[in-house]
Amino acid sequence: MAAQSITVRGLSKAFGRNTVLRGVDLDLPAGQVTALMGANGAGKSTLVKILCGVHAADAGEVRLDGRPFSPSGPAAALRQGVVTVHQNINDGVVPDLDVASNLLLDNLAEGGGLFLNRRRMRAEAERIADAVGLKIDVTRPVAGLPLADRQLVAIARAMAHRPRLLILDEPTSSLSLAEAQRLFALIDRLRQEGVAILYISHRMSDIRRLADRIVSMRDGQVSGLFEGKPLDYSGAVRAMLGHEITEVDITIPPPGAPMFEARGLRLKPEAQPFDLVLRRNEVVALTGLVGSGKSALAEVLYGIAAPEAGDMRLDGAPYRPQRPAQAVAAGVFLAAKDRLINSVIPQFDIQQNLTLPFTARHSGPLGLIRRAAERAAAERTIAAMGVVCQGPRDGILTLSGGNQQKVVVGRWMAEASRLLILDEPFQGVDIQARRDIGRRIRESAFDRATLVLCAEIDEALEVADRILVMSEHTIVGAHRNESIDLARLMAEVAGAADRTKEPA
Amino acid sequence: MTSLSPTDLAIRYGFLLLMAGMIVVFSVLKPAFLSPQSAVFILQSVAITGILALGVTATLVVDGFDLSIGAVATSAMMLSAYVMVIWEMGALTAVVLCLLMGAAVGLINGLLIVKMRVPDLLATLGMMFLLVGLQRIPTAGNSISTGMVLADGRTATGTFAPEFLMLGRHRIDFILPDLVPLSVVVLVVIAVLTWVFLELTRHGRVMYAIGSNAQAAALAGINVAGYRVLAYVISGVMASLGGILLAARLGRGDVASGNNLLLDAVAAALIGFAVLGAAKPNAFGTAVGALFVGILLQGLTMLNAPYYTQDFIKGAVLVVALVFTFALSGRSGRARR
Amino acid sequence: MISRRTFAALAASVALAPSLALAQDAPAPFDNPGQVNIALVRYLSTGDFFQAYLSGVEKQAAALGVNLQVFDSRQDAALQADMVDQAIALGVDGIIIQHGLTESMKEAAQRAVDAGIKVVAFDVNVENPKIPQIEQSDRDLARLALEAALADNGNSFVAGYVYVPGIAPLDRRDETWKKVKADNPGINEVAMFGTLDNPIANSVANQARSVLSANPNIQVMFAPYDEFAKGVKIAVDEAGMSGQVSIYSADISTADIQLMREPGSAWKATAATNPAVVGEVSVRALAMLLAGEDPGPQVIVPPTLITQAMLNELDIKNMEELGAKLPAFAHADVAMTPWMKLPPR
To answer: Which stretches of chain A sit within 8 Å of chain B by CB?
Structure first.
């Protein structure tokens, strides 16, 4: 039963100077679900892309049932029995075609006869759909199906190849609870049929339900392998997030008066409501896995999304922003994550990027910008943040990632705010930039409430007075950043604190 | 950044040098080319497309596009003729109604794009067809001129108001008597205003931010939808202003699609990307681009080059300008997206 | 279907009752014109000329009392051929093909003839001996205008010429210009230009300004298409040269009359065929075929010379007055038979 379906040895891959995989060893036994955990950038997707034939490895070897496996492309991988269902559902289906054509798409693409026999196609498609418990009219176009059915179509299509390895990349991220249950039942069946399954997810509840083994990845390497019941879920999370001792001493100042208060805040219909109080002169870090609801909270606070329920107050007054402009006007700023998508204006120079949210404060009658005032403000921020550049008129894209990040974070620290939210402010920056940004966050925090969202626990420990843990869209733990019980914190991140009951 | 390599120099000043070279060549071949009248005339010939091009530049800045400007211009021409010849109203009414029409079309374009989420090219293409048809409906496809017989059998007795015709025909003493037409003055004023708006005000700054990264602009608290709509309103108003000048020059309401106005205006705006290595839509570049095309056509016509060679050369210039923008200066930051 | 058709015929005959009394000697099928259906299949339709042509067709069809159906392909050659087939399928009695391309219309026209339908063609050669050609004589147009130019300016002058090759009527007018130049070596053509960029008058004005500043000695501008002439006139006015340059053109419209009559206008004369008359002649030629008579293989509508002096003398302000005060322009005595009913004047 424990036949090694797939063995990976010493797999390495680099994109330019950026090394993504550094000698990965991995076994995927037949008839077992191996859960793969890793933070963003740990190398999960690159590993998957090598297995399904999108990328070729630089070094190392993959064996499928003992034979060397190096597919020339996705089609070759599919023919040899490695089937992947991607995170983006529409990668797996052609929305404009009907279900039957989708189910038989690979056969169509492979060629064969010139003409399509509609009746035979339909019978064959129904047989495939049946095998995964998909009960729908195969003549319906896929575009009209709910998301979960589309995903089942993608899986059913994959199953037509009698796979030996099925890779599921965050398959439940857009499914409802009931839909996910249907998927889990299907995975159980496939496991019994002896298929090796690689299940990639951030959702601890999924992993608890399905995993026979857990592999944690960090920085392009396997950082932990967990087998045997009961599985050590907290250990897996710790291995994934890592924790190097960093010598940052945080002296926690006396917190000021409450600046922001939320009561009974509910971020999703099925999530538990929670309360949140953020005080003046206090830096609070909110940590949790990807998809745990950190960004959903930021969106609610910044007026991008409305909460399901709950009451928010800012400095004592009711606060319910409809759009970012209202949040900014009220003094709530958000330095967003993923700077190249959400923050950087590539055409602009440093100065223009810095002053973007506050052009009104640097302009006179008719909206004419006061160049001297703008430049002076930019130079102040450049100095305060320690941005390494020739001058404020340098193009933003000439800067290193760390310095770009200093600019888009500094943008929101140039003006006084009541609540400053920083979503992953240390994303993709080197250690020096991380220290600089963290120091600046702390030293400017006395007059406002500060909320830092970060998935990495190290970062939270470096910057925060208080650390909150989020899981399943609610706050599950709070820690003062002194002699923290890391084991408990990790357990909260892994979701151990909540309902431990296993589905029957 | 302090010392410029030859490539950087070529990117920055290449187009201006090319223009200077062109002027020298034409002046040698046809001495009449280098006279104040000739210079003013070049400005006059590009006044209308130049104003349209400045309008379309505003939409390019927010990463949009307005295909309806040619049709807006010819619709304004028909509307002004209708107001004065058939309704027999004055010049001011005609001008105000045309500008309002342009603003309304721009507003509808903007709302289609922002609220209804119709892609910009499709929304403005639809508007173009709509306007080309609409401008023919009131007169059953006929051009409007004094003396035309109306549907009810009356003869139209209204005339183009002299003040209105002045917009296209009056000349101001400048160095020489009767040298500079009013339309050129309008062009220069509009070009300066557009430049000031886009380069020196926070509104222009914010529009460039939207064009470069709309998501980041929205997260910086900017009203992205509002500024997008504003860009199309600017474009519509400018196009209707171009139509007013066109009507004042022709002195009648001509049924026309305005497609050539659109193409020339877009060409000017795209050539503008290459001026001074801007690699982005900009008012100064657009003005220079329009002038470039005007000089080229003036010189070639003086040399008796037939019209198809002129189209060919116009196209070649555009391609070269786009190569300047996208290939050569692509390293230092891309123009769009 | 039958009852509706009978009803339509009945309604038409009631409406036309007064004129029916005069039509007793009309030959079949015009003794019962409400039963006659004709189709106009157009290739070009936008612009004053085509608008006026259509009104002529409509008026003559109404005068005869026949039913007219208009198909408009809007410069789509393939669609125009399909429209002929559509008309055949509808069972019309006669078809007028207005413009189009020989290549695309030749076979469609043959199919119509094969179906027993009478066909005439205006300004398109469908290479079919059974199909009479209606033509406005472009050569005559150019000749009349140039004769006026020679009469006004003598046979030796500096000329500018507006021309875009590849457009059939302009090409025919060009032949005459070449011939006149050959016959009058004193004519010195210093510039040839032209464009069909829309709006044409504006684009031609831009070109003409360049030409005038390059060649300030031009005396005569031959612009054998009224949109060209309008553009040239704008440029001449802008250059302040209207005292020195004379414009000769072809075609006419109400707007053109206004421009020619402006004080000191450089636009001296134009030669024109009334497009409405061409439309009327097209219908009359088709009617003759339907009555079994032969209009001849070519029906040429003669042009009229209209000079600035003529317009001022008769105080003509628009096309209607032109027709009323210049009878040669209002009616062409071609494709006429004794029984033919003409539109009311």
So the answer is: 302, 323-325, 327-329, 334, 336, 341-348, 352, 356-357, 359-360, 362-363, 366-369, 390, 394-395, 397, 411
Token duo for residue C58: 């409509």
Predicted pLDDT of residue C197: 82
Interface contact flag, B200 A369, Cβ < 8 Å:
yes
What average pLDDT does this structure show over A413-434?
A: 88
d(CA A303, CA A285): 20
End-to-end Cα spacing for chain C: 36
Amino acid symbol at A350? I
pLDDT tens string A34-70 = 998 887 667 888 888 888 888 888 888 888 888 888 8
Instruction: Domains for chain C: give ranges and CATH numbers.
Output: 2-137+275-303 (3.40.50.2300), 138-272 (3.40.50.2300)
Domain range list for chain A? 4-241, 249-339+421-497, 344-410
Question: Are the Cβ atoms of B37 and C213 closer than 8 angstroms?
Answer: yes
Contact call for C211 and B302, based on CB within 8 A = yes
Q: Judge: domain A249-339+421-497, CATH 3.30.200.20.
A: no
Residue B31 is predicted with a pLDDT of 83
Q: Do B201 and A341 touch (CB under 8 A)?
A: no
- State the ipTM, two decimals: 0.87
Residue A221 distance to chain B (closest CA, Å): 33
* DSSP character at residue C103: H
Q: What is the pLDDT of residue C12?
A: 43
Average pLDDT over residues B277-286: 90
Q: What are the tens digits of pLDDT across the range B26-75?
A: 889 888 888 887 888 888 889 999 999 999 999 999 999 999 999 999 99
Locate A63 and state its tokens: 């064996």
Contacts of B209 in chain A (CB under 8 A): 345, 348, 352, 356
Name, in order, each residue with C-beta under 8 angstroms of A221's C-beta and a sequence gap of 6 or more. Answer: A21, A22, A23, A24, A43
Q: Is B223 on the interface with A (CB under 8 A)?
A: yes
- Domains along the sequence of chain B with CATH: 10-330 (1.10.3470)
How far is A415 from A359, CA to CA, in rounded Å?
11
